[in-house]
Specification:
single chain, 237 residues, alpha+beta, Type Iii Antifreeze Protein Isoform Hplc 12, 2 domains, 7-stranded antiparallel sheet, 11 strands, 22% helix, rod-shaped
Length: 237
Amino acid sequence: MNARQRRGVLLLLLSVLCAFGAFAGVLSVISDVNAKVGPEVTAYRVKADIAPYTPLTAEQFEKVSMPERWLSPSAVTDLGAINGKTAVTQLRRGSLLQSDMIVKEPRLESGQQEIAIMIDAATGVAGKIRPGKLVNIFATFAARDKGEVDQSRLIVANAEVIDVGELTPLEPRNGERANGPTEAVPITFALDTADAQRVAYAESFAEHVRLALLPDGSPTELRPGDGSYDLSEDRNK
């Protein structure tokens, strides 16, 4: 083997070694990327905007694959989670479905009935009351006779909201003040017959009906005297 042949062999071996080095480098990069990204899991993306309180179906979502480490702990990875659920707020097209975006669809129990009343948007905890929430329903009554006093009463405690309607303009009723409420929201409750009658009475005869939103898992426990209030109670303290 002459000198030229030896140089050719050496260059060939050097090329082979460089190729192995490049291949090892590519494998190292791929391994590093896999280590950083991790395995992929299934998530679900909203196909089109979904209005609040809309019952959810599988057709409203599309399956996507994403690295598990990029998903939040609340991401829905099993579409069975939407069974019997509704949207809590507006779900935007392209957003990933999260468990805090959905809530169990309220249903009537045996002995209950639906009753809807219009609640002044300015005083009804507007925007915070959603289906499934519990509220206290208060009504204020003006004194009718000389010996009576204006009074606030807790009409129904722990009333379950099952639907919230759209903001609706109000037309003043006969004798109603011009500066009264101009917009209201129809809110539907699941109540037994006695409580439904109380709510209907309050809507018809009370000066105002207001809702007090309760924390999740903290229903009101009434004590003696909690059902009504007037200013004389404070004056006598």
